[in-house]
Amino acid sequence: MEIYKISANKKRYLPLLLLADEQEEMIDRYLERGTMYVLDDGGVKALCVVTDEGDGVLELKNLATWPEYQGRGYASRLIHFLIQTYQERYTVFQVGTGDSPLTLPFYERRGFVQTGRIKDFFLEHYDHPIVEAGKQLTDMVCLQMPLSHAPSHEKGT
Q: Is CATH 3.40.630.30 what the domain over 2-149 is classified as, yes or no?
């Protein structure tokens, strides 16, 4: 298993990016300014994009695993990699996601805690309903983890 940075032609991964963020125009807002990593395990299995939001804040903008490889720890491995890579340069690791029974517990098991909500985010910023696990997403849930106290190992998968 190898994780490597993608610096050029990031859009070639658009089908995988769209699994985590269903609207290309939203991806375009962060893709070029973000740092992309790909997890390769006999082929690309997952990817992530992080951005520097200033004031010591690193934001996870996209985290996606091909459906046939979900549940095998690839996304957890990427989060662990990001913590190890950035904990000396940033104080806070944050992510915004939908109020989904799939994604919220995933992030919470990895040490993120809810810090707020952006009301109607998915209704106002997407041109179609976003549905996950049978639930239409409306608000963005904001989660953070202090990197100075980040877990030094993966918590669950």
A: yes
